[in-house]
Amino acid sequence: MQKNIIMASVKNLKKDINHTLGDIIEECYVWALLNPKEDTKKSEAIIDETIDVFDVLIAKLHAKDVDNRKKHFKAINTELESKAVALVEKINSL
Asked: Other CB atoms closer than 10 Å to residue 1's CB: what's the count?
């Protein structure tokens, strides 16, 4: 039973990562569409950074050499939240 709970949390964490970072990328594209005269290099840099964050978080999620899986997943979730807030702040400053 415990393994099923962990597997469900991995699945949910993957969904959270995908949805959260996908929404941030979408917001960059929306900003670019709403501001056609602005230079898009900054929004493209935010998209690139978001993709890098995604890659790092997914790699951490799939790490096999973890002592306490529950604590590990909680740390990934906390990192996702902090990185997402920082990325949204960058979008807001465009």
From this structure: 4
Angle, helices 69-92/2-34, rounded to nearest 10 degrees: 10
| pLDDT tens per residue across span 72-93 | 999 999 999 999 999 999 999 9
Q: How far apart are CA 69 and CA 90, in angstroms?
A: 31
Residue 31 φ then ψ, to 5°: -60, -45
Q: How far apart are CA 54 and CA 46, in angstroms?
A: 12
Domain ranges of the chain: 2-92
Q: Is 90 exposed, middle or buried (0-12, 13-18, 19+ CB in 10 A)?
A: middle
Sign, Cα dihedral of 12, 48, 85, 42: negative
How far is it, in rounded angstroms, from Cα 69 to Cα 71?
5
pTM over 0.85: yes
